[in-house]
Design a protein that fits this description.
Blueprint lengths: L6 H12 L7 E2 L8 E2 L5 H7 L5 E4 L13 H21 L4 E7 L16 E3 L10 H20 L3 E6 L10 H6 L2 H8 L7 H18 L1 E6 L10 H4 L3 H8 L3 H8 L9 E3 L2 H7 L7 H9 L7 H6 L24
Parallel strand pairs: 1-2, 3-4, 4-6, 5-8, 6-7
Helix pairs in contact: 1-7, 2-3, 3-4
Length: 329
């Protein structure tokens, strides 16, 4: 288990341990779930740490918030070379299942339609057009997983996970326009997933990887929309939501919340539900029912894990430090 001290990593260590699994946790930072302190970029450490292991869950990564504080080479070292180290160690040590935590950010520029166009319906068949070093390195790591399955028969499942971070949005304009929880509930309609559901998706992927061989899956809350809605989503989200959930306006009104006016993309989890047998619980319907009853719509696991941040010394929502642009030559 890489990234065992992280947000998803801690949640997975808890769940796997509760299921009776013996977890070897690897992370740069020490924690109760981390038994090996070190980097996935250390090839010898990775090889030693995977001896006697039956499966690998690879969640360790440099994330989008690290773009402002880490150079491109650091992303390559961790996200690409680190994944390669794990894949080679998995083959050498006879590991039976490999699950790679990727991101919907790998879709990149494919997520945004042109001005005045319909929302984009995002399935696994959409071609990735990464927009930054984070997306580039995650997409490349996915391709390495596919290569190792094809060349060595290593069962690899890639999970492209949508937003599940607990921190406020990184856009000041968005933070000023929406209450923190209001925005996260809105996002369950099209681009967010609860941590508990991310954990169950990983557990199922781990179990089914040998039968699947290789595949990529979008991991996001089940959207209530259909492909026929993409035109209206670009212009009148409140109207569509009102048709599907007539009670939402009363609940939102009582809380002083507002609905997004438009949506530019919808993540579709149909393949993951079909192939993995995944049944995410925390969708917009669940959120409305929870809010009506006066309960927090987030899972107990998500609330218990809380926010971990992405830097040792955070200077903003994630960080406000920016790296200077490289000189042109």
């Amino acid at each position: 288990m890489t990234g065992s001290s992280g947000h998803l990593g801690e949640a997975l260590v808890r769940a796997l341990t509760a299921d009776g699994e013996d977890v070897v946790g690897l992370d740069l930072l020490p924690s109760p779930g981390t038994s090996v302190v070190g980097s996935v970029s250390d090839r010898d450490l990775v090889l030693r740490s995977t001896r006697g292991v039956g499966a690998v869950l690879h969640t360790a990564t440099l994330h989008k918030p690290h773009i402002g504080t880490h150079g491109r080479q650091a992303f390559i070292d961790t996200n690409i070379s680190g994944t390669l180290n794990l894949l080679e160690a998995a083959v050498e040590n006879g590991i039976e299942s490999f699950v790679f935590t990727s991101t919907t950010s790998a879709f990149g520029r494919a997520l945004t339609a042109g001005t005045g166009q319909s929302a984009v319906w995002i399935t696994e068949d959409v071609v990735s057009l990464p927009r930054n070093i984070y997306g580039v390195t995650k997409a490349a790591a996915e391709d390495l997983c596919e290569l190792f399955q094809r060349e060595y028969g290593l069962p690899c499942v890639v999970l492209r996970v949508s937003r599940f971070f607990p921190e406020p949005d990184d856009s000041p304009e968005i933070r000023q326009s929406y209450d923190h929880l209001n925005l996260k509930v809105n996002e369950l309609l099209y681009r967010r997933v609860d941590l508990e559901d991310v954990v169950t998706a990983h557990q199922l992927a781990l179990e089914r990887a040998p039968q699947l061989g290789f595949d990529r899956y979008v991991i996001s809350a089940t959207t209530p929309f259909t492909p026929d809605d993409v035109g209206a989503l670009a212009t009148d989200v409140p109207g569509l939501v009102r048709q599907l959930y007539p009670e939402y306006e009363e609940i939102y009104g009582r809380l002083g919340w507002t609905m997004l006016p438009a949506i530019d993309r919808v993540y579709v989890n149909a393949r993951a539900r079909r192939h993995l047998g995944w049944a995410p619980r925390h969708d917009f319907r669940h959120a409305l029912d929870s809010l009506r009853s006066g309960r927090d719509p987030r899972s107990e696991l998500a609330l218990d894990i809380g926010a971990k941040g992405y830097h040792a010394e955070t200077t903003g929502i994630y960080t406000t430090r920016t790296r200077p642009r490289p000189a042109r030559t």
